[in-house]
Design brief:
CATH topology of one domain in chain A: Thiol Ester Dehydrase, Chain A
Shape of chain A: elongated
Distance between the termini of chain A: 16 Å
CATH architecture of chain B: Roll
Oligomer: heterodimer
CATH architecture of one domain in chain A: Roll
Strand content of chain B: 35-45%
Strand content of chain A: 25-35%
CATH topology of chain B: Thiol Ester Dehydrase, Chain A
Number of helices of chain A: 3
Order of helices and strands of chain B: EHHHHEEEEE
Number of strands of chain B: 6
Shape of chain B: elongated
Radius of gyration of chain B: 16 Å
Largest sheet of chain B: 6 strands, antiparallel
Radius of gyration of chain A: 18 Å
Structural class of chain A: alpha+beta
Helix content of chain B: 10-25%
Structural class of chain B: alpha+beta
CATH class of chain B: Alpha Beta
Number of domains of chain B: 1
Helix content of chain A: 10-25%
Chain lengths: 152, 140
């Protein structure tokens, strides 16, 4: 069943702030095998002009995807998550995420489309720090594949 | 050594890299990212939903691809924009070897404010796994 297009433009309340820890950044950098010292060595990060270690470019997804659960699990929207695949992902950075940030995400639904029976949902997360400064915008497209008509 | 805007031109190639990925890599990434979707670690589940094998997290592949840019420029915070399309999954067999993600990058456009657009190509097993993979990065 197609998603209700009246959800386009809907904005959800900002999430409770996510506190970015140095050890979480380290864990993420190790998991993606990235040895750039800016992620783990405060002096190296300072040499690049940052007040503390910074997070890898795709780290904000950890926060924005969690925030997008508001949409994904919205019973009124009725997305069948068991059929969802990640279609695309974009980030636009004002500055890198860094240790000590307390980041709140405001999630909006940018688009709902139906393509070849698939539901295509575009969700935007605007990430701000506790001073209200914009940090990063993350836009993701989720594709809920059409139910197999042959029956499953 | 920082890359200067003045040193690059359209067509400048970034050093290519290969990133191995095993089941252990995926378990570690699941833990670090919080994405515990079983298609990334449970072969039985992956096969049941029609996948060829356990597949790598798309966000893992995206994280590897941009390393070609961040390793080149040195400062990961110089990345201003980064986007990809997930065109094909990366199957990760449980054979002790896993898969390899190969990434190349090329300067595709010179932009204002000493920024350049880098277009990335990521393949695994000879198949393109990311589409429209582009990063905008500010150079010195």
């Amino acid at each position: 069943m197609a998603l209700d297009p009246s959800f386009i433009g809907r904005t959800y309340p900002p999430t409770e702030p996510y506190e970015v820890g140095r050890e979480k950044i380290r864990e993420f950098a190790v998991a993606v095998g990235d040895a750039n010292p800016a992620y783990t060595d405060r002096e190296a990060a300072k040499a690049l002009g940052y007040p503390d270690v910074i997070a890898p470019p795709t780290f904000p997804f950890v926060i924005t995807y969690g925030a997008a659960a508001q949409v994904v699990n919205d019973p009124d929207l009725g997305l069948d998550y068991s059929r969802v695949v990640h279609g695309d992902q974009k980030f636009a950075y004002t500055r890198p995420v860094r240790a000590g940030d307390r980041l709140a995400v405001t999630v909006s639904i940018d688009a709902i489309k139906s393509l070849a029976g698939n539901d295509v949902l575009t969700v935007r997360g605007e990430v701000h720090d506790e001073t209200g400064e914009h940090v990063v915008t993350a836009v993701m497209t989720l594709v809920a594949r059409a139910a197999d008509e042959a029956g499953e | 050594m920082a890359i200067s805007f003045d040193e690059v031109e359209v067509g400048t190639e970034l050093p290519a890299q290969s990133f191995p990925v095993t089941r252990a890599t995926l378990v570690q990434y699941a833990g670090a990212s919080g994405d515990f979707n079983p298609i990334h670690w449970n072969e039985k589940f992956a096969l049941e939903v029609g996948l060829p094998d356990v597949i790598a997290h798309g966000m893992f592949t995206m994280a590897e691809a941009v390393r070609v840019v961040t390793d080149w420029v040195g400062d990961p915070g110089a990345v201003v924009e980064y986007g990809v399309r997930f065109t094909r999954p990366v199957p990760v067999p449980n054979d002790g070897v896993g898969a390899v993600i190969e990434v190349t990058g090329k300067v595709a456009a010179l932009l204002e404010d000493r920024k350049v657009r880098v277009d990335l190509v990521a393949t695994s097993g000879g198949q393109k796994v990311l589409g429209m993979s582009r990063a905008v990065v500010r150079l010195g």
